[in-house]
Amino acid sequence: MASAKSHYSAAELAALRLPGLPTSERNIRARADREGWNYVVTPSRGRSGERREFAAASLPAEARAGLLQHAVTAVTATARTLPKQSSAVRPTGALAAPVALFPESDLTDRQRLERDARAGVLSAVRRLQADTGCSQEAALTTLLTSARAGRLDAHLDRMLRLARDNRGRKGDGYPSARTLKRWLGASNLAPRVPRASLDVPTWASVFLREYQQPQKPSVEAAYRAACAQWGDTRPSIHQCRRLLAKLGSVTRERGRMGARELKNIQPFVRRTFDMLQPNDVWSADGHTFDAEVQHPLHGRPFRPEITTFIDIATRRVVGWSVDLAESSHAVADALRCGVERCGIPAIIYVDNGSGYRNAMMADAATGLIGRIGSTVEHSLPYNSQARGVIERVHKTIWVAGAKQLPAYLGAVMDREARLEQFKLTRRALKSGGAMPLMPWHLFVQWCVERVAEYNARTHRSLRGISPDATWANHVAAGWSPETLTPEEFDTLFRPRVTRTLARAEIRLFNNIYFARELEEFHGLEAHIAYDIHDASRVWVYAPDGRLICTAEANGNAKHYFPVPVVEQARQKRAKGRLARVDTKRDEILAELHGAPAIAAPAAQQIVIGGRIVEPAALAQRAAVLDAAETAPEPATQAASRSERSAADNYAEWLDLDERLAAGEAVPEADARWHRTYQSTAQFRAQAKKTTTTRKQA
Question: In whole angstroms, what is the distance from residue 388 CA to residue 99 CA?
Answer without folding.
Answer: 49
